Amino acid sequence: MELNVVVIFYSRSGKTESLALAAGVGAIQARANIRLRKVSGIADSQNAESEYIAPREIDLDWADMLVLAIPSDAPDEMNRYLGSLKDLSGKIAAPFTSRAIAHGEKDPALLALYAAAGRAGMMVVPAPAEAAADAVQATRTHVRRVAEIARALKTHRAASNSAAAP
Description:
Elements (H helix, E strand, L loop, with lengths): L3 E6 L5 H15 L3 E6 L3 H5 L10 H6 L2 E6 L5 H8 L8 E6 L10 H12 L3 E2 L10 H30 L2
Parallel strand pairs: 1-2, 1-3, 3-4, 4-5
């Protein structure tokens, strides 16, 4: 069954961008179609050249799964974007920040990202609690696993809907 994943990220220094790209690779490894979208910041609007387009409502409608990635300082631009999200009930979210966190540590930016995804009605699949030595590999692996979960859920829903049809 086809799976569509949109990776939405905000990056100032490039670290979150590299993790977003790794997330895209993880989704591709799970045989998903992907779209990479960057939330524009103040500096981006002053410099019109960008390698990415901003996330659009059509991307959200298309997606079965959203990967949400932000720097650990939770910039206002991403907070505004997340606050504007419509109802995304039934979609899977795989949020993460660029900051490695130790087991048991609470990352305020990540908690805010989980809350925003939850308010939009998404089912949040958190990253493993342990800090990874290789953040790129850990991101790729996590998104691949979440994409496999999203595909299984989509397949189950389709089977349930066809069984319920007269």
